[in-house]
Design a protein that fits this description.
The complex is a heterodimer.
Chain A: E1 18-21, E2 40-43, E3 59-62, E4 69-73, E5 78-82, H1 87-94, E6 99-100, H2 112-117, H3 125-128, E7 135-141, E8 147-150, H4 156-162, E9 171-178, E10 180-181, E11 186-194, H5 197-207, E12 213-218, E13 230-238, E14 253-254, H6 266-279, E15 284-290, H7 291-295, E16 301-302, E17 313-320, H8 322-339, E18 346-351, E19 366-374, H9 377-392, E20 396-397, H10 407-413, H11 417-421, H12 431-436
Chain B: E1 3-7, H1 12-23, E2 27-32, H2 35-47, E3 52-57, H3 66-76, E4 82-85, H4 93-98, H5 100-128, E5 132-136, H6 149-169, E6 175-181, H7 202-214, E7 219-222, H8 225-234, H9 238-241
Parallel strand pairs in B: 1-2, 1-4, 2-3, 4-5, 5-6, 6-7
Helix pairs in contact in B: 1-2, 1-7, 3-5, 5-6
Classes of the chains: A alpha+beta, B alpha/beta.
Chain lengths: 441, 246
């Protein structure tokens, strides 16, 4: 059987997913599929990691051809486009006009609709909140055929349920966004070495007031005195003119196929993490770089997710609030380092207190940790342990990166889930939702 | 600034070509059947940089409306210099075998409507002694196969028409480009489930079309490996070919 073209970025779970390509935003939703469970779920560009974009037994609505712009106010920086427009295409259009995404995730190959449905965040969360904070309006097409324009004022409950609503409230056909002014395509970045988690938190406090973007790479292998050492990146948009080569919207190199076994293992992890930390000799390095290099370093390697081999990977991103959260982060990092599992890129970021309009939005004040794991049995046990720690401090795990959390955990992380469930379109469902949205027995 | 007429402007390949012209600041005139869809395409092109994107919704099998289309396009553009003909339907071969009406409809859309449009349009360009006419044909026109010979016959007729037109217009400085895409992942082919390595994206085909127009190519296979595939298929002797199921 041919491999399904509908996969999530983690390549787990791998299911034979049926899809319905959508071409025109004015078209009605496809009719009943003829089988018992013909439920629908919008699918963007498959950049979420787990099963939040999959609908086993049902159908996904492939929105990739809904990639048209509708209008762009170049003075006010307001853009309206169809939901399948890639962030890359949007940036290609707006950066030369002096505008930028108000919030950008770590890949520019996500769609605008996917960014809204997962209420994505970026390195500027402490400054700008989530993607949903900048959405001014969208149209929602429901399975009863109704088309609702949702804004903070009009259909405000559906507005709030759909931002971060994981595609379950209906199909978003178009989105209107308020962009952010920039002088050019460049950013000025400082990379500062830190030797433990306390230093990380101090750097965050010192930097968040002066830098729009802050994020840290952390060594997830080292233990003892070096636990939580890493590189802290902080940056602002820069007004100098970009004079380098013309940038492409496509990856520069690509992982051509999935190797038979994962290239990420105990030894490669140790070597990479040590190398990456040691690569920067000086304590602080300053450079000016193109937005693509700053925001999307992994986008330059096409299909990087294939390095985890045929079984794919599991991402884990949690949010740990308050002082308890900081203490718990130490414990979590040593649990991960002790397990021998982990990833090349482990990310830490302190979220700010700007709240999202999204009812089910993941970000909230606290520290967030994100890393990926090779898919193997002991990792599931490890992640269950991490979930227990997250729950202990009243934190949350990011649905867009999840393929395995329990219903019990999900419902603890997202106390508004029952209120949200009332807004779900009866014709829509997802693998993720059926796993976590039922009653806990 | 290019002045571009696109017939069948809501097709996936036409949209991808139109976006490239829009980014260069071209002025466009769009024709397709569905007014709502045309609106969506025109808005997109204007945001992407088109100087203008005027349009007319018309059923192209209604040949009586062709003079109106030609007049509106000439009126909407200031000095037409580039024409892309991109409309077409991939008929259900089985239905065409059962019904002459179905078969003739496919010939109407894929062949006769192009002849009807290009006859006056070609004369316009010939009078002005400049311009390019680019027409999307298909590899299916290279050889009649049991699986799609009605479509193939229309495209083959189209190829011969374009060959003659190219020959005639050469002295006027008007260029005619025949485009033969292979398998392209578009709504027209969405019902075909198996998508192997031979399938191309509309954006790749569009890039090839723009390049072929710039280089004044005569006949171009897109992606280019189809030239080799079709060379092989064309060189199979008929006595063998008729036994094959391709």
């Amino acid at each position: 059987m041919a491999a399904s073209i509908y996969r999530s970025w983690g390549r787990f779970p791998q299911i034979d997913q049926r899809g319905e390509p959508l071409v025109w935003r004015t078209d009605p939703l496809p009719g009943p599929g003829g089988e018992e469970d013909a439920s629908l779920l919008p699918f963007g560009n498959g950049r979420s990691y787990g099963d939040v974009c999959l609908n086993r037994g049902g159908r996904v609505l492939d929105t990739r051809a809904l990639d048209r712009f509708i209008r762009f106010d170049r003075e006010q920086g307001i853009i309206r486009c169809e939901s399948g427009v890639l962030l890359a295409a949007l940036l290609h259009l707006v950066v030369p006009a002096g505008w930028f995404l108000p919030v950008s995730p770590g890949t520019r190959y996500a769609t605008v609709g996917g960014a809204l449905a997962n209420d994505v965040h970026g390195k500027n969360h402490h400054y700008a909140g989530t993607f949903g904070c900048h959405v001014t309006a969208f149209e929602l097409l429901r399975s009863d055929g109704s088309r609702l324009v949702c804004t903070p004022e009009e259909n405000s409950e559906l507005f709030s349920a759909t931002i971060g609503g994981m595609g379950l409230t209906g199909l978003v056909t178009w989105v209107e966004l308020q962009l952010r002014r920039v002088q050019g395509a460049l950013l000025k970045e400082e990379s500062v070495k830190f030797s433990n988690l306390n230093e990380f938190f101090r750097l965050s406090e010192l930097s968040d007031g002066n830098f729009e973007y802050t994020v840290a790479w952390v060594d997830c292998v080292s233990r003892g005195d070096s636990l939580g050492r890493g590189l802290f990146a902080r940056a602002n948009h820069d007004s100098s003119e970009y004079t380098g080569r013309e940038r492409s919207d496509k990856p520069t190199v690509s992982v051509p196929f999935s190797p038979p076994v994962s290239l990420v293992n105990r030894w490669s992890l140790k070597a990479f993490n040590a190398f990456y930390y040691a690569r920067q000799r000086e304590r602080k390095r300053v450079r000016t770089l193109h937005y693509q290099s700053f925001f999307y370093p992994l986008d330059s390697i096409g299909n990087w997710n294939r390095i985890y081999g045929p079984k794919g990977m599991l991402q884990y991103q949690c949010l740990l609030p308050g002082d308890d959260g900081r203490k718990m982060l130490h414990e979590m990092m040593s649990t991960i380092a002790g397990s021998g599992n982990g990833s090349f890129l482990t990310v830490l970021k302190v979220f700010g207190d700007k709240s999202s309009p999204g009812m089910m939005s993941f970000p909230r004040p606290g520290v967030t940790l994100a890393l990926d794991f090779q898919n193997k049995p002991d990792v599931f046990r490890l992640l269950d342990r991490l979930d227990a720690m997250t729950r202990e401090v009243g934190g949350a795990v990011y649905p867009a990166k999840d393929a395995r959390m329990s219903a019990e955990s999900f419902q603890a992380y997202f106390p508004a889930w029952q209120e949200f469930a009332e807004h779900i379109d009866p014709g829509f469902s997802s693998s993720f939702w059926r796993r976590v949205g039922g009653e806990v027995l | 600034m290019s002045q571009v007429l696109i017939i069948g402007a809501t097709s996936a390949i036409a949209q991808a070509v139109a976006r490239r012209y829009a980014e260069q600041g071209a002025n466009l005139f769009l024709v397709a059947r569905d007014a709502e869809r045309l609106d969506a395409v025109a808005d997109d092109l204007v945001v992407r940089g088109a100087a203008g994107a005027d349009m007319l919704a018309a059923d192209l099998t209604d040949l009586d409306r062709h003079p109106e289309i030609v007049a509106a396009a000439l009126d909407g553009l200031s000095g037409l210099d580039t024409i892309l003909i991109a409309h077409g339907v991939l008929p259900d071969q089985h239905a065409c075998e059962q019904s002459a009406r179905e078969a003739l409809h496919s010939i109407d859309v894929n062949f006769l409507s192009v002849v009807s449009l290009l006859t006056p349009l070609a004369n316009q360009l010939a009078d002005r002694k400049a311009g390019v006419i680019a027409v999307i044909s298909s590899v299916a026109g290279d050889r009649g196969r049991q699986s799609n010979y009605i479509y193939g016959a229309a495209k083959s007729g189209l190829d011969t028409f374009l060959e003659g037109l190219r020959n005639r217009l050469f002295k006027s400085g008007v260029h005619v480009l025949t485009i033969k895409p292979g398998f392209v992942a578009t709504p027209m082919t969405a019902h075909i489930p198996e998508r192997g390595a031979l399938w191309a994206q509309p954006e790749d085909i569009a890039a090839g079309i723009i390049k072929a127009i710039e280089k004044r190519r005569n006949v171009v296979y897109l992606p280019s490996f189809w030239a080799l595939i079709m060379l092989i298929i064309r060189s199979i002797p008929e006595s063998i070919f008729k036994r094959l199921s391709l």
